Amino acid sequence: MFLSTTLLYPLELAVLCLGAGLLVDRVSGSFLPPALLPTAGLAGLIALTQLSTYIYPVARATPYLAAGLAVVGYLAARPRAGAIVARVRERPWLLVLPVGAYVLAIAPVLASGRPSFSSYMALADSAVHMAGADYLIHHGQHYAHLDLANSYGQVIDDYYNSSYPSGADTIFGASAWLIGLPLIWAFQPFNAFVLASATGAAWLLARAAGLSRPLALLAALTAVLGALVYAYELFGSIKEVTALGLILSLGALAVVHGRWVRSCGRGAIPFALIAAAGISALGVAFGLWVLASALVLAPAFAGALRGDGGARGRALATIGVGVLVVLVAALPVWTSAGGSVQVAEGIASTGNPGNLVHPLRAVQLFGIWLGGSYKLEPTGVASGLTHGLVLLALAGALLGVWQLVRLRAHVLLAWFGLVMLACLIVVESVSVWGGAKTLMLSSPVVVLLAWAGVGALRGLRPRALALGCSGALGLVLTAGVLVSDAHQYHVSNLAPTDRYEELARLNSRYAGRGPALFTDFDEYSLYELRDLDVGGPDFVYPPPAAAAAAGGHGRPVRIDRLAPSVLAAYRLIITRRDPLASRPPAAYRLVWQGAYYQVWQRAPGAVAAVRHVALSGDGARQCRHLGRLAGSRKAAAARTMAVAVAPEVVRAPLVRSRRPRQWRPGRGGLVLGSAGLLRSTIAIPATGVWNVWVTGQLMRPLHVAIDGRELGTVSGQLDGNSLVVGSAPPIPVRLRAGIHHLELERGGASLAPGDGGSAVLNSVLLAPETGRGGSLESVPAARWRVLCGRRYQWVELLAGAPAPASRS
Fold first, then answer.
1. N or C: lower Cβ tally within 10 Å for the chain?
2. Number of domains into which the chain is organized
3. CB of 207 within 8 A of CB of 201?
4. How far apart are CA 167 and CA 186, in angstroms?
């Protein structure tokens, strides 16, 4: 799976985009520079997949239609395709730029050696795109059959049935489905590929700014991998990453406008197709960049319209064809234009800053940010160094303006200027979240302008001074970006592979047997459990009837808060394996257990309990509660009392342990600020097999030992939210009754991705090995006194006599 997602999938995307790009070029008059073929093809594929999913009866044919479009492109443009292949064979260095960009963009996943996606826990929006891409390819834009009583149906309906931009999702879903890849593992490679494809347009813009080929290569690489862009790519901002290459392509087409503005109409197809694809991927807000590019082209069209009749007719034909292509290629957007505008206005005006602590800084436009998080200001020496490098980049940008004036690159200068003006206006007038996205999309323009300053310095005299100054500025820009990206690579939290693979197996096993109540906080389950009509009480979109099971978004789920009649609507309950978690009601039996999850199925014909009450306190207090619940002897005679026995759990005293000073209390446990060794003692009450449960957010390996014997290692143990932390799979160990010595050791940092990422140890628990499903007992309610003397998780009052088997 790892090689399929990181190697085969980008190759497939390259074949699709190049083939579609050749077709776009062929029908446009064969004027596109080779560097623009991938983004032109991407735009064509977005338009196709949007239309095929809009006509929802043919949605399932979308992957084959995309492949067919690419095949037609290769057949229609065989001579040019052959020429491109021959050129790459002669000059293999041409692939260095896109391949290098792809490798750097997906570096955290590549270095991990397993399918995953980066910056896990940064933002869960990517879960929506995974679920949405899968839904659109299978059902198209048809939402009438969704179950709005559960989380999955609510998410799909609220996003995609309300004109949410889906252009990136449809091509993502179609391309991954074509070779049978799970979208959760194809997500990061898709973003990395799309970002890498933007290097072609960036290279053309750098060349137009007077840079030599080697310098243009570095300029393009750093422009599309600047710190802010890299951050958005790492946390999976699929809409913005897709739109970025389309924006740069509009600028490149504006620069080469002489090749197509005076054509007989069809020359406008690439520009219009890219504009339509951007609107489909990002929403009507993309029109801002289309307008900036159109204004740059306005003088050229105005000149043609003032010419003779032939020139005027060609210009009008070009405008007409362009408008027609935009209308057709983005038809789903225009048919729900009101909703599209509302979505854009909602993003622009929302008071929700997303995952931002404060608005982003304007200096982040320069692609240099020597800190692990784009959300936080660098501290100490890194802060001063960051601002010093940014000042040098600013000086380069000012020199870049002079360079474009000297070269009389008026179109490029005007495009740069209009894009930055639009950025300034938007950032000052929209929400924090919308402003951050605008800064990210504008950052490559600023970086390219700074590189134009390198070209200006190369024109100095004497030659040695020119080479020295330009080389120093180029080094600042290159090193600043790459070191910034290395910081983010180092703290990238990678999604846990094994746990999601287990959810995928669970989904396949029980597909169509929902609805299922999911008690873990993990919104990626919306995709992984898509065939179970899943509802998560602590999701952003909880099932209305079950929302009370969580104390708020991201809080632990307690089934005991729900009335038995609410649970009766769920055939399955999926819980995380946890020694402290409450067993589901007596009507449910454990039917499947993995390393991380348990599946409980409602017994056929089971009726809802008369009452379900959570119990707490010591045995005496619980005994009194049982008596009150049983009621009078007459009432108790016709009822059964079922109880879930509470397991005996030993908690290691982490806060009172011997540990490094950098392991400080916080975030519900210990924040591990360094390498080191923790030593603690635990008292085991009975001899037997005990399971060791480690909970926390732990990227770097944590070695677990008892009495000097190493039991195992916990690493890559992350959950979707720092408030709800799940356990790693239990580690069984046979222990004698008495005192034992627990050791937890965390090694030093390495070059592994995420080694500087999350490190919070919440707890270490030991619980005795029990049978599958825990201990459930039932007795006639009139005999409630036989239950006294033990502690229970809950008690249920059931109608009728108990079943013959009273324990499970």
1. N
2. 3
3. no
4. 17
